[in-house]
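In this supplementary section we document a worked example of the pipeline. Step one takes a protein sequence of length 97 as its only input; no multiple sequence alignment statistics are reported here. Step two produces a three-dimensional model, which step three serialises into structure tokens for compact storage. The input and output of this example are shown verbatim.
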Amino acid sequence: MHMMLQAVRALVSPSISQKERSVCQRRMNQSGLLQQLCTILMATGIPADVLTECINTVAEVIRGHPDNQVGGICAIIFQIEHKLVSQVLPFFYFILA
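The serialised model returned by step three reads:
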């Protein structure tokens, strides 16, 4: 997992040209990779070292790319809403029943 995240970070590293980095960032959003990385961020039971690497990877993917910043935030909000609904809805069902 570490090597995969490091490979992603290498593709969006500030050391490569802005044009190449922007193309890679756009593709990572279009392919759904950014959303999957955000899913990992919100998952439970992820080891701290993997979570740290994932946070850094998401930061690199969204750095300087407004579409990815919005996409990343939306993916995280979706994960939060999904968790809330799945945890709160059974409680309300119990109360109303």
